[in-house]
Amino acid sequence: MADHSPDLSPRNPDWWRQAVIYQVYPRSFADADGDGLGDLRGVAQRLDHLAALGVDALWLSPFYPSELADGGYDVIDPRGVDERLGTLDDFDALVAEAHRLGLKVVVDIVPNHTSHLHPWFEEALRAGPGSAARERYVFRPGRGAHGELPPTDWQSVFGGSAWRRVPDGEWYLHLFAPEQPDLNWDNEEVRADFRTTLRFWSDRGVDGFRVDVAHGLAKDLTEPLRDVGGIGATGEQTLPLVAPGSHPYWDRDEVHEIYRDWRKIFDAYSPPRMAVAEAWVPGARRALYARPDELGQAFNFEYLEARWDAGELRDVITGSLATARAAGASATWVLSNHDVVRHASRLMLPPGTDPAAWLLADGAAPAVDTAAGLRRARAATLLMLALPGSAYLYQGEELGLPEVADLPAEVLQDPIWEQTGHVRKGRDGCRVPLPWTTTGPSYGFGPGASWLPQPASFAAYAVEAQTGVEGSTLELYRTALRLRRKLLAGETLIWTPDAPAGVLDFSRAEGWRSVTNLADGPVPLPPGEVLLSSAPLPEGRALPPDTTVWLA
C-alpha cells in the first residue's frame, strides 16, 4: 500500500489541510521550574512525546502575560511571554526544537478583547469619557435617570450583564469576564496593532494561528445600541430573529473584511501562515471564515456536540464535508478541547444530560461508567481520524483521561464559577495537569505539586504506565496516527449503501475502510484485513458495540 505521508516541509503551503494538530494548554502540560504551573520549557522538554505520538503540529493555548482571570485569555501583552511561563528566548527555543522534530507550531491569538491590565485599557480609564484612548474599546453612557443602568441588555458569555461601570459613570463592554474588555475593531489603531502582532509571531517562525472568538470582532456600534432580547429561565440570552450576519455583536458580515486583510499578511510568508477560526456559528456561516482569502479553516463544533448516534453523526459528517468543500477548505474534526467536558466522560452522559449540571453534581448524578466511556471515546477517535480533513487533539486524550468532575469548590479557578453565582462549575475539570509518571507529587507533571489537584486515578493513565503496553489508549493513538499517514489520500469518502442500522461504514481512497458500530449489539464485520481496532475483536467476524475498525 502506498505511503501518503503529508508533506510538512516549506514546499507545501497546504500542509494543514489533513494534518493532526495537538492542542497544548501550557499551564497544564509540563512544569519545568517546579512552581506548580506548566511553562514553555516544560513543553519543549516533552516535545518528543508529540513526535512519538505522530502528530503534525502543536497548537499552543495562550502563554502571554495574563492575570489568569480567564485561564490566559485575558492578555496583557499579545507580543510577550508571561514571566511565570518563561521568556521570548524560551519560546524561540521551543519553536526551534519543534521544527527540528518535524512539528509545526500554531499559536492562539485573542483579538476580541484584552486584559483590563493592558496598558491601553489602563490609559482609557485615566483619560476619561470622549478620549481617543477610550475609542479603542467600547465605552458608553448608561441608561436611566443617572446613567445607572447598563447601555443595553447584552449578556456576558460567562453570566450576567456584559457591561461594567467605571467610577466616572461610563460603562465598558465585556462579552466575557469583566477583566476582558472588548476591543473596538472599527478603530484603525486596533487593526494596525494586531497586524503588528501577526507579523511579530510569524517572524519568530510560527506556522499558523488559532483565532479565539473569531465571530465576535465586528459589532454594530451605531447609536442607539440595539437590545438583543429577553433572558431565559436559566440565564441564557434569547437570540433575536434577525437576518444572518446582522446580530449586534456575533458573526456580523463586516468581520470578514478583517480576515481578508489578515490573509494578505499570512500570504506574505513562505509557506503562507495557516489559520483556524473558533467561530460558534452554524455550518453555512462557518464556511465563510474558512474561505481561501480569509482564515482558510474553521472549527467544526457540530461534530463535537453530536450525540453518539449513527444517524446524527452521519448527517453532521456529510454536512461538514459539504460545507468545507463549498468554502474551498478542508473539514476539521475535534472531540475535546480546553473549554468542554473531556469526551471520555461526555460521550457516556445520557441523552439530554446537561454537562454543566453533571459537573455541578461532582460527576455523581448521573454516574458515569469510566470503562465504558473510554471504550466509546476510543471508537470515536478512530472514527474521527478516518475522516477527510484535519483532526485536532486535546492534550491528555491520547491517555484516555476522563473529566475530573469532583474538583472541590475551593480549588476552582474558572471565572464562570463566580460569575454565575456558583451555578456553573466551569472548565477546570478538563484542565487538570497531565500525568507523565505513575509516582511523584504531581505524577511527573513537575517536581512539586500542580496548580489543580490530580486524582489518584491519574497514575494508571500516565504516559509511563501506557508506553509499550499493547492495547493501551496511548499505543492505540500512536498506531492510528502512524497508519493514518500511510493511508491518507484525497479529501472525500464514500458511504457504504447497505450498512446495518446503527453502523457508520465508509471507504477512503486507496482501498481502506472505516466501520463504527454504534448499535446496541454486535454486527457482522465486513470482509477485509483488519488494520486496527479500537477494542479487542471476538472470535469470528463480529464487530462489538462502541467499536471502530479500519479494514484494508
Keywords for this structure?
552 residues, globular, 16 helices, alpha/beta, five-stranded antiparallel β-sheet, 12% strand
Structure description:
The protein has 552 residues and is an alpha/beta fold. 27% of the residues lie in helices and 12% in strands. It has helices at residues 40-45, 47-53, 88-100, 119-127, 188-203, 255-266, 283-289, 301-305, 310-327, 343-346, 355-360, 370-386, 415-419, 458-461, 463-466, 473-487; strands at 20-24, 57-60, 104-109, 139-140, 163-165, 171-173, 208-211, 274-277, 332-334, 390-394, 494-495, 503-508, 512-517, 523-524, 530-533, 542-543, 547-551. Helix 5 (188-203) runs parallel beside helix 6 and helix 7 (283-289) packs parallel to helix 9 (310-327). The longest helix is centred in the middle third of the chain and has 18 residues, at 310-327. The model is unreliable at 231-235 (pLDDT under 50).
The DSSP helix count reads 16
* Morphology call: globular
| Percent of residues in β-strands | 5-15%
Proportion of residues in helical segments: 25-40%
Q: Between the first and last Cα atoms, what is the distance in angstroms?
A: 9 Å
Strand pairing plus helix content: what structural class?
Answer: alpha/beta
* Tally of strands: 17
Strand line-up in the sheet with most strands: 8-7-3-2-1-10-9
- Gyration radius (Cα, Å) is 23 Å
Regarding quaternary structure, how should these chains be classified? Answer: single chain
Low-confidence stretches: 231-235
Mean pLDDT: 94
Major sheet details: 7 strands, parallel
